[in-house]
Amino acid sequence: DLLTVERIAVGLCDLAVAAAMYLLFLLLQGRAPAHDLWWAPKTTLSVAAITSILVVLRALMDLASARSVIHQIQKLYTDLLLRLTQGYNEMHWGRFVESNRSELSNHALYTAREAAEFYQRCIELTAAVVIVAAMTAALVYQSAIAACAFALALSAFYALHRLCIRSRLQLAAEARETSLRMLQRNLADIFSSGKEIRTYRNHAFFHNRIREQAEHVASSNLRIKFF
């Protein structure tokens, strides 16, 4: 996928910028790098120039890559939204009549949006895995002890994710879906019972209920983002 290749190129450029800045800091301190490579620049001015060029190149690559990703995400979102809308319109008439129209609309909007966001995260995750693999290979080449320590830390993080974070993330996602459904139903009740609400002047009751459900949704979103 071209988008994944572009994000990988940005990550590799980040590594090049980090290496150039590390070399620049060494030369500014009057120290020489541990490995004297024939192709590495020797003067502070040349390293500073290369670092500046890499920073500008990285910014341009990131801009072009972000534009491509956003364009593809928007295209995917539109395609999914149209397919879901067509699928709901072609439902069996009995099921369509029994369904809540506002819920069908919200399902189409939220499902298309979340699928597009998931696609974007997959691109970022794939690029991150490639970059980490490149860093790991360099680490193994440089120091086997440091590579073993990195592997242990990665294993500990994976175990923590499997044992603690994953289940809590699922619970938070389920809580958010429940809160969203309740919020949608309460909004539908307000709009469908507008005449009765104005007659009995109980706006505060319904508004407080909407506020509570909105706070539940916000709390669930916060937990999901945190995990």
Describe the structure.
The chain is mostly helical and 227 residues long. Helix content is 89%, strand content 0%. It has 7 helices and no strands. The protein has helices at residues 2-28, 44-89, 93-98, 101-142, 144-192, 194-200, 203-226. Helix 1 (2-28) packs antiparallel against helix 2 and helix 4 runs antiparallel to helix 5. The longest helix is centred in the C-terminal third of the chain and has 49 residues, at 144-192. The two termini are 28 Å apart. 7% of the residues are buried. The model has no long low-confidence stretch (mean pLDDT 85).
Overall 3D shape: elongated
Count, helices: 7
User: SSE string, helix = H, strand = E?
Assistant: HHHHHHH
The value of Rg in angstroms is 26 Å
- Mean pLDDT over all positions: 85
Beta-strand percent range: under 5%
> Spans with pLDDT under 50 lasting ≥5 residues?
none
> Would you count the extended β strands for me?
0
Measured between the Cα atoms of the first and last residue, the distance is 28 Å
Task: Provide the structure class.
Answer: mainly alpha
Helical content band: over 70%
Largest sheet, in brief, is: none
Compose a concise summary of this entry.
With 227 residues, this protein is an all-alpha fold.
Topology:
Elements: H1 2-28, H2 44-89, H3 93-98, H4 101-142, H5 144-192, H6 194-200, H7 203-226
Helix pairs in contact: 1-2, 1-4, 2-4, 4-5, 5-7
